[in-house]
Write a structure and sequence with these properties.
about 250 residues, alpha+beta, five-stranded antiparallel sheet, two-stranded antiparallel ribbon, 7 helices, about 20% strand, rod-shaped
């Protein structure tokens, strides 16, 4: 009588795949290197501007003016993504609410000079969002508010997304281990399962505005998504990827 030992080879397979999985690192976040998205689709490395935005939101930052006296912050949608130099005839107006870049149909003039300021007097310090920002005064349209610096609060979505979903990520990892043991998964399939599911968890965490400090009044005035501080175009959220290191 011949007995076929099917258990030992299977145990060896499980041991081998678990060993490979143990030797793998799964990197999840906004990465310069190529990776994979929430559905396992291939993604190129994240552009530098999105990496900068991710770092600023993850850790917070104070942005100060460089090579100019003030930062020009758009407060009207037509000014979003532009500078005062893009508006011929723009002039500066100081009000009790701060210093503004404005345009008016009844006022003619050439474009503002680069690196110039309407006054050498330092504007009074104003906290962003402390008072309503006027959009029009007669025929004057307010496009920018000029500030020495802007402080962006920490809105951690990678670290906090992991910390607040640790149990769910542990459950996902357990599912991957069960896949190897009971469903003949290999280590690569298990690692991809963990990566895709965790990317989805972080993106879902970002989708909830209640997890973060809200946008300021100035930012809301030009935003397409004023209720969510981390979602504007979706580029930041969609840039979250995973990549697998090791395991060969």
């Amino acid at each position: 009588m011949t007995v076929n030992d099917e258990i030992t080879p299977e145990l060896e397979r499980i041991k081998q795949e678990l060993g490979k999985l143990t030797g793998m690192k799964i990197h999840i976040g906004v990465q310069g290197a190529s990776g994979y998205g929430v559905s396992g689709e291939g993604r190129k490395g994240t552009p530098a501007d999105i990496i900068t935005i991710a770092n600023v939101n993850e850790f917070g930052a104070t942005i100060k003016a460089k090579n100019v006296k003030n930062l020009a912050i758009p407060i009207a949608k037509k000014a979003k993504g532009k500078s005062p130099l893009d508006f011929p005839g723009l002039f500066f107006l100081r009000t009790p609410h701060g210093l503004f870049g404005c345009i008016s149909k009844s006022r003619k003039g050439g474009p503002p000079k680069q690196k110039s300021s309407p006054s050498e007097d330092k504007p009074k310090s104003k906290k962003s969002g402390s008072k309503p920002i006027k959009k029009k005064l007669g025929d004057i349209e307010f496009l920018f508010i000029l500030m020495d610096s802007v402080t962006i609060p920490e809105r951690s979505f990678i670290r906090a997304g992991y910390d607040n979903n640790r149990k769910a990520i542990e459950d996902i990892t357990a599912q991957a281990l069960k896949g190897i043991i009971f469903d003949s998964w290999d280590a690569d399939k298990a690692a991809n399962h963990i990566g895709m599911a965790t990317v989805g968890i972080i993106q879902t965490y970002m989708n909830s505005p209640f997890n973060f400090k809200g946008k300021g009044r100035v930012t809301k005035s030009t935003s397409n998504w004023p209720g969510n501080p981390l979602v504007e175009t979706g580029r930041l959220r969609n840039s979250i990827t995973y990549r697998i290191e090791g395991g060969s």
